[in-house]
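**Fold in tokens:**
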Amino acid sequence: MDPAAIAGEVALGLLVGTLVGLTGVGGGMLLLPLLISALGVPPILAIGSDAVINCVTKIGAGWFHWRRGNVNWRLVISLAYGSIPGAVVGVMILARLRATFGAGVNDLLKIVIGILLIVVPIAYLLEKATSAALEVAASAAREYRYSFGVTVIGFVAGVLVGVTSIGSGTVILMLLMVFYGFPPAVMVGTDIVHGVLLAGLTGLLQFRMGNVKLELVAWVLIGSVPGGLLGSYLTNYLPSSRFRQLLCAILVAVGARMLWVTFLHAN
């Protein structure tokens, strides 16, 4: 393999791993469009490979947050009750799409991923603008809607992860902030630990479907694992909220470009 290509994959992993550990923004949301747009990986292989990369990257970051007391295990379990069956449903949907559209599934996935890259970051930014007003209501709601509401969030995210590999980080983090308002460090740490479980299951299912490129996974992980540890270490020293805002703006632009190019080629 071309040494320059290997260096690019390692550097990409380091960048994404650091940002995931620092901001809690999902690795799928960050890495997936880069794999497709920058490295030219077919979307269906990018989705499966990204799930495996996301799982391994978050192991180190999750351990770091656990050591700092940033993990709410009750919240992790409640999310998993919904996300595990949701991931299975999502992968089944992806398998059906592949059987129905064949090679055309890649163009369909580009459209779905492009839309998510626009909608999710915008919703995330809008949520940040209104989260203070929801904090009182969120505190009152925790006692009564905690398990069921969090499980529903987990299921929705699980389906999204199964189909696109997007959702294990950003979507869950966004919805927890809106409806429950836990301290940011606890939400990030909990979300990363839960992401290990969700991405691990999804990655296994994708591997069994032949949607994982192991060589790509290996090189990206060489950069993303230390990157995740570095980002987690920097959490208490850098303004992660500013990074999230910048990342959201970039993701919207990437999503818009992906849709534009896909529709342009279709015509």
Q: What stands out?
A: Residues 114 and 219 are 25 Å apart (CA to CA).
